[in-house]
Amino acid sequence: MAGPPVKFHNSQLARQQRKVAYLLLAPAVIILLALAIYPLIYAGALSFRVDPLYNPKVARFIGWRNFTDLFEDSRFWASIRLTLYWAFVVVAIQMVLGFLLAILLDSKLRGSGLLRSLIIIPVFISPIAMGLNWRFIFEPVTGLANWILSNGLGVEKYSWLSHVDTALTTLMLVDCWQWIPFVALILLAGMQSISPEIVEAARLDRVRGIKYYFKIVLPLIRPVIMVVILIRLVDEIRMFDLNYIMTEGGPGSSTLLASTYDYTIFKHGHLGLMAAYGFLILILINGVVGIFLNTLYRSEKAARQEDMN
Mean pLDDT in the chain? Predict the structure, then answer.
């Protein structure tokens, strides 16, 4: 006789718990809808319209014309190629130098704790403030870089950000200066999470120095490396603030990355074209992430099969 009431009580309690869970989740869902889903849907609808910012009366539906106009624009393809080149080159430099810096920090040198605190400072600097400071440093007349080169090495002053040959390289230098410490500290955390038993076994087998990091550490922190590469690739593909502050995509189109080109479309008031370009950048990012995750999955699967064998 006591069975049914207990069952009814449990089901009622479960319904109440679900209601409480839904109520607790509701604010997060509402914020997500307001800040992410709705703007995405609105931008999607806008990409199929001509909607001039400075003359909204002529706004109308035009179908796929914004996308076809972009595909026929040589600057669009140039910006996409440059963005992919930028992302892969910069991330490769950051990973290599970040790994070497992580090795240095892991070597228990005197003052390494202070060094860790100091090198993370660039990560916390606002990209706008950093861009303004570096633009002043590379200023052709009174900039610090030219002052050091002219007074210290006798080299003539040079317009680093105004020449096609050096503008992109200078931007890469600044971006790497900011994000190499971030990569190094994440890789360092992965290194220090390795089991002490493995470290001791490597020491007993006399696997030391650079050989230890490349033979033992590198394979063990491969998942960490993959995650860092993914984070940095996404950030570099959507790079805007540093690019716009330092060069605005110039000289010419030599540093015109995708997000900066999208902003130039917005400045001319072509909202529909801007939304279409934004969606293409989104597709590009998702494509790169999908390929990367598939590669990561395949490599991890192959590694597990190798360990089993």
Answer: 86
Rounded to the nearest 10°, the torsion over CA 21, 26, 29, 33 is 160
221-245 pLDDT tens trace: 988 998 899 999 999 998 999 999 9
The pair of structure tokens assigned to 250 is: 């110039």
pLDDT category, 99, cuts 50, 70, 90?
very high
Rg, Å, the chain Cα set: 26
Q: Residue range 134-162: average pLDDT?
A: 85
Q: What is the per-residue pLDDT across 84-94, written as a single tens digit (0 to 9) for each?
A: 999 999 999 99
Domain boundaries, the chain: 73-267
Closest CA to 240 of 270, 276, 271, 265: 265
CA 175/CA 229 separation, integer angstroms:
15
- Classify domain 73-267 at the CATH class level: mainly alpha
Alpha-carbon distance of 230 to 186, in angstroms, equals 13
Buried/exposed code over 175-192 (b: 16+ C-beta within 10 A; e: otherwise):
bbebbbbbbbbbbbebbe
CA 146 to CA 160: how far, in whole Å? 9
Q: Looking at the predicted structure, is the pLDDT value of residue 33 above 50?
A: yes
Q: Which of 169, 179, 185 is nearest to 91 (CA)?
A: 179
